[in-house]
Structure to design on (282 residues):
């Protein structure tokens, strides 16, 4: 249990590296030239208690001197181990260095987003105005419950279709002939699919075919499909109440995109996807 606590504190210390120094506040713990303030200890304690600052303050107040000393000892052990890691050069190990870097990046990025909170919160009037302006965007697409058999050749597809038309049930034909392990294992049941998610040639037929009719083989992607539409739900516009969270999310994305665009003017961004393709895999 103590090993887990020390490991947890080591992770926390990588986050603390991104925080400002304790300043003039009296240090409650010193390890070499590392000084830890009471506020930092309170922060670590709040993390142990699920991020509840008020509970952490109450817990610290109720701690006996022995419990406080034990907590400080755990923090000092983590600091000692982090110093030991530096002495061994572990901080320059590529994986460790990347973890330290991106822990800090994520912490600061989240803090920056939190600083934008007033601009990311919208009242009902703003949300309704955005909803009315983009009402056509907020729709629930049509969906269909289907079952299918997938094969890699037209000949196999025709054999499957013939078996179905001869009276063999879909479940047994799928288990016997389908080359899609998922549909074979589930007895051909695909479940509900949303309009626009299937390959175009198949999608068009699924959302126009009569119900409970076996159709195919239809060539799509890497093979041929024999399918049956069992149920279908028509698409419709979402009400404001249904779309409210989506509208808020879209407005937040607009704010964040604008903020990123503004920062890009100050910090030019160069993307090199081709170079990424040459990255060696370990």
């Amino acid at each position: 249990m103590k090993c887990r606590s020390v490991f947890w504190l080591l992770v926390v210390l990588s986050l603390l590296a991104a925080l400002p120094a304790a300043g003039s506040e009296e240090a409650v713990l010193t390890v070499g030239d590392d000084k830890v303030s009471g506020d930092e200890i309170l922060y670590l304690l709040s993390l142990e208690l699920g991020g509840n600052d008020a509970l952490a303050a109450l817990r610290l107040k109720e701690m006996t001197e022995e419990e406080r000393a034990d907590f400080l000892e755990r923090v000092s052990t983590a600091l000692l181990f982090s110093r030991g890691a530096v002495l061994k050069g572990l901080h320059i190990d590529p994986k460790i260095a990347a973890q330290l870097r991106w822990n800090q990046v994520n912490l600061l990025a989240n803090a920056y987003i939190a600083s934008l909170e007033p601009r990311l919160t919208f009242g009902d009037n703003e949300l309704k105005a955005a909803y009315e302006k983009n009402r056509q965007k907020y729709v629930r697409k049509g969906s269909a419950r289907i079952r299918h058999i997938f094969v890699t050749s037209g000949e196999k597809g025709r054999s499957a279709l013939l078996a179905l038309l001869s009276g063999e049930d879909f479940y047994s034909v799928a288990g016997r002939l389908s080359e899609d392990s998922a549909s074979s294992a589930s007895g051909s049941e695909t479940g509900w699919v949303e309009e626009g998610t299937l390959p175009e040639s198949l999608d068009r037929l699924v959302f126009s075919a009569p119900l409970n009719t076996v159709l195919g083989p239809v060539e799509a992607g890497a093979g041929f499909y024999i399918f049956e539409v069992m149920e279908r739900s028509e698409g419709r516009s979402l009400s404001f109440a249904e779309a409210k969270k989506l509208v808020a999310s879209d407005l937040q994305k607009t704010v964040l995109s604008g903020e990123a665009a503004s920062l890009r003017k100050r910090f030019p961004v160069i993307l090199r996807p081709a170079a990424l393709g040459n990255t060696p895999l370990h």
